[in-house]
Amino acid sequence: MNNNKVKDILLFLPAADFNEHEFIVIKNGLRDAELRYFILSDTSGVCTGNNGLKVKPDMMLYNANARNFAGIILCGGNGAKRYWSNQTLHRLIKDFKSSPTKVVGAICNSGVTIARAGVIAEKAVCFPEFKGEIEKEGLKFTDQPVVFDKNIITAREQSSSCEFISSYIAYISKFLE
């Protein structure tokens, strides 16, 4: 048994216009579960939320290595649309997906980023306005608050934040014991 399992989670924030509610619910859920998280972004400055919340990233996107983390979560918000086709983020998501014990999560329109990375096998959910983006990737849009596709968890929207982080923590915990 490997006693040196990685238990840290990467939490990706768009540099601008991330959903503050989702971020706060997710970070508090991780903290309450005693999981360390590191804020990841593509800015060396601060990430700015949709209501002006400023968050300093711990790590730049190009420095992230999936081997050092148990999972990754992508927050949504209008700014998340800028990352739908970000190849650096896609590569990182693929690195996480290549391990069956690492968990990838996305909420709101960040589900489109994961879908476009090509790692979802069958189904996903995102903010309903972007249902067509999920379907364009050959996936079934499943209109539920939280959807599992193997070790990938997607959530519909801000109102799904609590259910999403509870589901994510429960699922990843079985790999961290």
Task: Give structural notes.
- The chain has one domain: Class I glutamine amidotransferase (GATase) domain (Rossmann fold).
- It is 30% helix and 23% strand.
- The protein starts with 8 loop residues before the first strand and ends with a helix.
- Helix 1 packs parallel to helix 5.
- Helix 2 links the parallel strand 7 and strand 8.
- The model has no long low-confidence stretch (mean pLDDT 95).
- It contains 5 helices and 12 strands.
What fraction, in percent, of the residue positions are helical? 25-40%
CATH class identity: Alpha Beta
Tell me the overall shape.
globular
N-to-C CA distance? 10 Å
The average pLDDT is 95
Order of helices and strands: EEHEEEEEHEHEHEEEH
Q: How are strands sequenced across the largest beta sheet?
A: 6-3-1-7-8-12-11
